[in-house]
Amino acid sequence: MTELLTPRIVTMTEMREPHKVLERSGGKPVAVLKNSALVGYFVPAAAVHKTESRVASHDEILEHLKESRKRVQPVLEYLKDK
What we know:
Elements: E1 9-11, H1 18-25, E2 30-34, E3 37-42, H2 45-49, H3 58-80
Parallel strand pairs: 1-2
Antiparallel strand pairs: 2-3
């Protein structure tokens, strides 16, 4: 069973009237199901605008690369000879 990232769900049939889905969503993302299987998420604009985006600093990028190096090193070694 797929884990849903939101407690709000609608069916594909309900998506025929997206304005009603938006009204009931309370500005939160909604999981869209078809035959009880997750198809995707319907995300109102209000939910996106609440998120602040930012650019990672140079130091943050270097730190991430340093941390991920151990995880990807076997792949890098394998690809050297290819």
